[in-house]
Amino acid sequence: MIIKPQFKLKEYENGLYLVSTPLGNLKDITLRAIEVLQQSHYILCEDTRVSKNLLDKYQVKSKLISNHKFNEKKNVIKIIEFLKSGKIISLISDAGTPSISDPGSILVNECINNEIKIFPIPGPSAVAAAVSISGFSDKFLFCGFLPDKKQQLSNELKKFSEFENSLVFFISPKKINKIIPEIKKNFEGRKIVFCREITKIYEEFIRKNVNELELFEKEPKGELTVVISEKKINKNLSEKLTESDINIIKKMINKLSTKEITEILSQSTNVPKKEIYNYCLELKNEK
Model-level pTM? Predict the structure, then answer.
């Protein structure tokens, strides 16, 4: 398949282009992404073998430069020199959006320091894809890859468990059974979705209640994107009216009805409506 560029090369400004690439299915790439890759002088990629499959499919002949977590610091000076000389350079990862839990942030910051223009070319995202099918709150915290060391892992998950909205993180199949006991300990009562091989032939979404989680009998194939549901607040366990709440009620008690005050205050506190309502009645009866 050959995609003909819509613009001449001079139409593109020189600079660094962060190009999102397919998660697995090679058809999940934008026409603009192909066009930018075709017109780049150099393409930085994690694994040239992986990227070559995509680039060959779309007849991209640009020169590849290996750029992974072990050599990205070493590459920076050379890449900055290329960019300063007027080259167009694209940065891609093996899958998804570069610099998001993948190499790229070091180069991006160096470009910022050197006032070199950076252009995002959006596309596939494992995080957005996983959240979209989870059924959980679309307000979420992306945690990236979690720490390897047991104590650090435990501390991180304990901290994240206080976050009330959904959580998303990546985990390798080799580490999934190591993390499951910590998830059960810190996220009791929540739901979880394991997303595996997104957009690929063996795509799979495993939905569970955290309390019912068990270790995987066989190591799953492919990196996992994991989504944990939002934290449900039990209003029966919420605090009593605070001094601040009481002062607010006293200011409104002669201006609004008990029902109106209850509705207003319940939006900014976890105190049960019944308790707010009863307190309002007590104040009105005292007058």
Answer: 0.76
